[in-house]
Amino acid sequence: MVEVHDGPPMDGFSVPLRLHNLLLALAGRIDDSALTEARELIARAHIDEAVELTTGTLIAGQIPVSSTEQRELALVLEMSRSDATLANDLLVDETEPVNTHRFTGENSPEFGIAEALDRTLQVLPDVRSVHAVWRNTPAGSVPGALPQRVVLVELGPEGNPPAVAFRVDTALRRAGIHSVVEVSGPGVAHSEYHQAASAAASPAWVTGSATSTTSAYRPEPVAKPSAPAASPEPVAESGSRHSMRSSATTTASPEPVAPVVPIVSPPPPPPPAPEPPRKVRSERAETRAERTADLTPAEVAQLRQALAEDPEKGREIAAGKPSMHEVVELPALDLDDPSLSERDRALLRELHAELAERERAEAAKMRLNGASRSGGDQRGWTAP
Amino acid sequence: MDPDIEQSTHELLLRLAGRLPDQLLWRFRDWLGEGAMGTLARTLPRSLLKHRIDLDQTEYRLLVAGLIPHGADWHQVSSTLGVDDVTENRYTFTSSAPEWVNSVDSVSVLIHATLRGRPDVGEVRQSWRHVGVVGQGTAKRVLLITALSGLPRLTGELQRVLRVLGDEEPSVEVIPPRFDLPGYHRAALADSELVCVGAVAGNRLVAA
C-alpha cells in the first residue's frame, strides 16, 4: 500500500483544497468532465466521491502520475474515508509531464462570459480576474468535443477555489457557455498547462487594481465590517469590484451583497458632481471603509461626531446639505486608529448607508436630466 | 480478465440504465471497458448505496459475481440487495429526432460508418429519451446495439466517439444475446429507428 504519511508538499492545506490543487495539476491530463464533476463534488462536500472519480479516471485511462501525486491521492482517499489502496493501482511515472496542448485566444473565447458571470462575480468574494482561451487538443483518455473553452479564474486569499470553480461553471452552463473552469488561489504554482493557457488567454473580466498591485486587496482588520449580511450595506452593494461599471448601473441593483465582498476600487464619481474635489488624502494605505465612502478624514470626523451627538444632524450632513462642505473645525481623525470601537464602526456603517442613499438619489437625478451614462459602460467593463 | 466476471458486470451496468445517473453510468462503463475492475469494485457498491439504488436478486448476484473477486467490500455489497420491487422505467422514448438535431444527423452517420458490417455486431438502433412529457425538456440519444462479444470494449469505444461529438454523458446500450431486457430497454426499443446492421445477421432487437 502507498505510504501516506510522508508529509507531502501540500501540508497545511485543508483536504478539499488539497484535492482541488491536485485537480489543477491534473488539468489537461484527465478529461474535462472528470475535472468539472470532481470540483462540484468537492464544493458539495462529497470529497470521497471526488477523489474516487479522480483516481478511477487516472487508473482506467492509464494516465501516469508522479509518486508525489500518488501519495497525495492516497492521503486524500484515506482522509475522506475512502479505500486508500485504490492508489496502488495508479500508473506511476516520474517523468515530468510535458504540456502538449495548444491554446488560442482567437475567435473570442471570452465572449459572453462577463455577462454570464455578472451576478456570480458580485457575490463571490475576492475574485481577481477571469480569462478565457480555446484549447484545441483533447484531454485525458475520454476527451470531449473540441475546441474546449478553458476559463481561468484568479482568486485572492479570501476566495475559496473549489466553491468558485463550481459556481462559475454553473453560471456559465446556465448561460449556455460550455467550458472547463480552472480556479487558482494564492500560493499554488501554475502548471505548464496553465501557463500555456494563460499566455494565450483573453481577459473576460479583471478587477480594476488587480493589474497594478495585489496588496491593495488584502483584508484590513480595522475596517472589516463585522456585521453579517443581515445588515445591508449599500457600500458593499456598489459593485465597485466591477471597476469600470458606472455607479448608476450598480446602484440600480436591488440585491444586497454580503459585506465580506472586498472593495477594490472607489466607485467613479458622478461626472457633474456638485461637491468639491476630495483628492486630499494622505499617502497612507486606505481602509475599505474609506474607499467605499471616498471621504477625507476631516469629513468623516465631522460626520462621525455629528452622528454620535445628533443623528438627525448627521443625516442632514450625509444627505449633502450645504453645511457639509463648510470648513470643518474638528480635529482630524485617524481612521487607522485600532482604538476605534465597535460603536464607531457602527456609526461609520450608518454613515455609509446614508452616503450611498445620497449617491443613488444623485444618480436618479442625473438619469432624469439625461446625463446618465449609456449602456456602453457595461460593455466597457471587459478589460481590453 | 475472467469473461464471466466481465460479462456479469456489463450486464449489471446495462440493467442500471435509467436508474444510476448518466454521469456515473457512462463512467463506470468506461472503466469496465478499460478493465479497471479493482476501481469498479471499490466505487460501484458505494455509489449504489449513496444514490439509494436497490438491486433485485438477479442484479445482486451479478454484483457479487463481478466485483467480490476484485475486492469489493462485502458489507457494502450486502447492503445493496433490496426487498421491494425495482422501480419501473420512468422515461418515455420517441424514434424521431428532436428539432435541434440537424436534418443531417452526423452522429448517426458516423455510427453507421463505424458499425455497418462489423464482425460480432448485430442490429444498431437509436431512440430519443425524454423525461416526462415529450417535447418539454431535452431529449437524449440512446444507442441500442446487439453484439456477440467484446461488449464492454465496444461500449467504451462508442462512448468515446459520442463524447467527442458532443454528448458528454453518452447512453450506449450494448446488449448480449438472450438477455432478459429490463423495462427501460424494452421501452426504448419499442420507439427506436434502425441505424445500421453489423455482420451478424438475424440478431434482431425488434421483430420485423
TrEMBL record, chain B:
It comes from the Bacteria. This is Uncharacterized protein. It comes from Amycolatopsis heterodermiae.
